[in-house]
């Protein structure tokens, strides 16, 4: 404004009556009025708020990926990209339909702006996702929180497992996972991974490294068809997994198929392990779990938002189900009621509780900005957000 700010005024001690350049002397400005002072306070508050908001947004933004290592080994191959896949299918008694390998587009979308609205007892309004980690490649499916506040990430393309500690520091903790994908930790602390290379298998990585299951009806699991996808381990030592359909690998390694008319992906047990939830494109299907691990009473549990498909899944301590979808995490009550959406900056494929008190929600998003500033699709990013709800106390996910 010409002639200076109209809010410049003179007052007593503690007032805004000292003008720049006055060397501590009160400038002969007009007397302060309460409205002028309040206007100055509001202006200052807005300016400070914008400053901190800009800083917070910058903190939450992912940096560019580093340049690709020209000497890096080629990525690990999922079964359907392996040169021996056709021969493996031909050896099956009833060869399944061949699924083509993934071909990622050269470019991907930029992050989207989002606004988190409150979901009662789940998340407060205005929360923001915090960027934690990223990596180029088809990595990060089936993340799982650890009891010490960390997060485990299976890197499909590198056949290893990375751990982010509670401070976000990354280190490789397991190697040689044969294109290992999703991870699950059961209530007793045993860690399992699904290995997606040729001759796929469910492996226990800890406390003992051993094969849980690698055969279905006497043949390799390639004969099931499709790619080994997600899994959730039970306290008995077995694991449920999705591979086109729904399967259970018992503690003795016997694999049994369950369900009808399913195109499965994300899979998770309820906190008490009495129910199993599995995504079926636009719905979530529920089963009752029997004492021997078998499944009964298939039924639709919930419907997802229109034009969305479920991917990874998690549950909280109160039995709510969290499903990763394109626009974000869809939250479903323990009774199957759709409660709301936690929007995300990018499309996501996996979700897990973790952190202190298990009150942090982690997601695995797809896409990143490469070293040249180009948005690419084939990359993984991890973000976290504080929650009101918390994960189960009896197991990590």
How would you summarize what this structure contains?
With 397 residues, this protein is mostly beta strands.
Secondary-structure map with pairings?
Blueprint: H1 34-60, H2 85-90, E1 130-136, E2 144-145, E3 151-155, E4 160-164, E5 170-175, E6 180-185, E7 191-195, E8 201-206, E9 210-213, E10 215-216, E11 219-220, E12 231-233, E13 239-243, E14 245-249, E15 255-258, E16 264-269, E17 275-280, E18 283-289, E19 295-303, E20 313-315, E21 321-325, E22 328-332, E23 338-343, E24 348-354, E25 360-369, E26 375-386
Antiparallel strand pairs: 1-26, 2-3, 3-4, 4-5, 6-7, 7-8, 8-9, 10-11, 12-13, 13-14, 14-15, 16-17, 17-18, 18-19, 20-21, 21-22, 22-23, 24-25, 25-26
Give the % helix: under 10%
Helix-strand pattern: HHEEEEEEEEEEEEEEEEEEEEEEEEEE
**What value does the Rg take, in angstroms?**
26 Å
Shape label: globular
CATH topology grouping? Neuraminidase
Describe the structure.
The chain has one domain (107-386): TolB, C-terminal domain (Neuraminidase, 6 Propeller), CATH 2.120.10.30. The longest helix has 27 residues, at 34-60. The protein has 397 residues and is mostly beta strands. The protein has helices spanning 34-60, 85-90; strands spanning 130-136, 144-145, 151-155, 160-164, 170-175, 180-185, 191-195, 201-206, 210-213, 215-216, 219-220, 231-233, 239-243, 245-249, 255-258, 264-269, 275-280, 283-289, 295-303, 313-315, 321-325, 328-332, 338-343, 348-354, 360-369, 375-386. The termini are far apart. A four-stranded antiparallel sheet has the order 1-26-25-24, with no helix packed on it.
């Amino acid at each position: 404004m010409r002639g200076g700010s109209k809010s410049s005024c003179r007052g007593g001690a503690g007032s805004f009556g000292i003008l720049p350049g006055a060397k501590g002397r009160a400038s002969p400005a007009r007397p302060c009025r309460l409205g002028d002072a309040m206007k100055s306070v509001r202006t200052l508050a807005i300016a400070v708020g914008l400053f901190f908001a800009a800083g917070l947004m910058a903190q939450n933004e992912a940096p560019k990926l580093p340049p690709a290592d020209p000497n890096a080994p080629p990525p690990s191959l999922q079964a359907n990209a392996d040169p021996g896949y056709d021969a493996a299918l031909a050896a099956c008694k009833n060869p399944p339909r061949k699924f083509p390998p993934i071909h990622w587009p050269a470019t991907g979308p930029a992050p989207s702006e989002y606004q988190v609205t409150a979901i009662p007892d789940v998340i407060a309004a205005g929360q923001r996702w915090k960027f934690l980690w990223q990596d180029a490649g088809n990595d990060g499916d089936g993340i799982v929180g650890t009891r010490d506040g960390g997060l485990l990430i299976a890197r499909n393309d590198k056949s290893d497992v990375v751990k982010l500690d509670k401070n976000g520091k990354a280190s490789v903790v397991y190697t040689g996972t044969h294109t290992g994908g999703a991870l699950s930790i059961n209530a007793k602390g045993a860690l399992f991974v699904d290995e997606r290379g040729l001759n796929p298998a469910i492996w226990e990585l800890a406390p003992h490294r051993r094969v849980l299951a690698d055969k279905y009806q006497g043949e390799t699991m390639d004969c099931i068809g499709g790619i080994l996808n997600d899994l959730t381990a039970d306290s008995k030592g077995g694991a449920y997994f999705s591979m086109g359909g729904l399967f259970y690998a018992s503690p003795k390694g016997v694999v049994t198929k369950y369900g009808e008319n399913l195109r499965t992906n994300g899979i998770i047990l309820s906190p008490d392990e009495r129910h199993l939830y599995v995504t079926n494109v636009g719905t979530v299907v529920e089963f009752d779990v029997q004492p021997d691990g078998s499944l009964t009473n298939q039924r639709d549990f919930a419907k997802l938002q229109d034009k969305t498909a479920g991917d990874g899944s998690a549950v909280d301590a109160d039995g709510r189900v969290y499903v990763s979808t394109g626009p974000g995490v869809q939250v479903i009550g323990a009774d199957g009621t759709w409660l709301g959406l936690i929007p995300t900056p990018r499309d996501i494929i996996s979700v897990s509780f973790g952190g202190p008190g298990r009150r942090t929600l982690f997601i695995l998003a797809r896409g990143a900005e490469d070293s040249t500033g180009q948005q690419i699709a084939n990359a993984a990013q991890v973000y976290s957000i504080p929650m009101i709800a918390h994960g189960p106390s009896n197991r990590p996910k």
